[in-house]
Design a protein that fits this description.
With about 450 residues, the protein is of the alpha/beta class. It folds into 2 domains: about 130 residues, NAD(P)-binding Rossmann-like Domain (Rossmann fold); about 240 residues, Dihydrodipicolinate Reductase, domain 2 (2-Layer Sandwich), CATH 3.30.360. Helices cover about 35% and strands about 20% of the residues. Helix 7 packs antiparallel against helix 16 and helix 12 crosses helix 16. The longest helix is centred in the C-terminal third of the chain and has 20 residues. The radius of gyration is 22 Å and the shape is globular. The termini are far apart.
Length: about 450
Amino acid sequence: MIGRQKFLQSAILAGSTFLSAGKNHAATKLTSHHDDLNIALIGAGEQGRKALMVSCLKIPGIRFKAVCDIWPYNLSYAVNMVNKYKHGAKGYEDYRDMLAQEKDLDAVLVASPDWMHAEHANACMNAGLHVYCEKEMSNSLEKARSMVQTSRTTGKLLQIGHQRRSNPRYIHAIDRLIRETGLLGRVTHSYAQWNRSKKASLDLICPEKDALGKSVLEKYGYTSMHELRNWRWYKKYGGGPIVDLGSHQIDLYSWVWGVNPKSVIASGGTDFYKNREWYDNVMTIYEYDTPFGMARGYYQVLTTTARGGFYETFMGENGTIVISEVFAYGNVVERESHAPEWDELTKRGYLIASEPPLSQSISRNIQLDVKATVQGGRWLLPVELAKKEHQPHLENFFEAIRSDVPLNCPGEKAYETAVAVLAANEAVASGKRIEFKPEEFEV
């Protein structure tokens, strides 16, 4: 009889093969195309370097030819980092110089502050390059719309960085279990959160020796290094925590229910960090008019406590799925006591039966009173992600360039999420319920 650990390892290794039978699962692996792609990075900050660049360095056939950032500290760090892998990348302060001089690029990764996404992405697409742009598309719907329009007119691909849409665990949980097999029955509610500690939410500083001069800052639209380093807290540059963090998770609600939200109400404020423009906490309720009836998704983002970390929960009449991007064993399916037997799905590899020790703790970040809430048992997902979280989404983008594989999150889909998420800030500001019209999600 095969042991549980061995079975888990086998299921993990076989995950991409198992998922390939479903829809839109191109991101699980690169196919047989091995043509090198020359790429550039605009915005070499934490996200650009540690998420996108590190992931790309693990993908065969990808070569950095250029890196662009207005801050020399970021630029030199990233160029030195990528050239350790013998890519031979050149550094540029201004993206216009990069586009004028680099003539053999295939694609550009855009990881600059949100307010510059549209300018950078549109310029690259108009220059004949495909674009992978970090989420949020923009802190302006008008700018986000222009990105979709430019992609259409130029015929260039535009992938937005909602990387969960390429994560094989989410594909399995949502496409296979919730949507295809109907494992949970009617999903009536969802809950998600992203809680960050005060320590993780403090302002970023800049040593005086590394600071940009006033004229350079003003050239690129900033009044101080504090603004440049902490752009996410300013309304001119970003959308605040509900956009930075919430976009990833609120995007999943529409994926699960297959429709965009009907309305949103929200509460929040600058209750703790008094020197910031954007709300340090937001709590929202979205309503979804699904084919099976009304469903509601609650979402919260906090920046003064890390309690519970970040995860998503999808609750149906027959069971619940708890999942997170980073938990190795936080992906569990809990069955209601009245639900039908799931043994057949376990035999077919859709689920893995859980042993008793797991019932004491879902993960190091989530503690649940399982005995009080679940009487029907619990299962694990049979698929894990043995890669950086962003890597499958980048692989999907590169494979779409090389072949006819569809993007997992094209601009049109990400625009729908931008409409929903940016409205949360509007709901907080107005104190009113925001009602959506279907045409608002269209470009």
